[in-house]
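Quick one: structure tokens for this chain, please?
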Amino acid sequence: MKVLFSGNGNNLSTYSRHAHEHPEIILTISGSAHAIYGGETYIAEGGHLALVPPNTFHSIKNGNSYSDLFVAIDAMPF
């Protein structure tokens, strides 16, 4: 498992369009995040949880605030 933090108050972060062989869980902790996957754009706000299936192209970026915070958890095999 790999955990990525973003938007910790220091920068506005973006993860460009990509896909991987394992699922990914994205938890928006505070503020908002803009997630694109499955051809749709979603605005995830604090408390929202998203599951990105394996081999699905997706991207995510912070909203427009330095207080936005999301966590991406890659469920990689051991």
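The chain has a mean pLDDT of 78.
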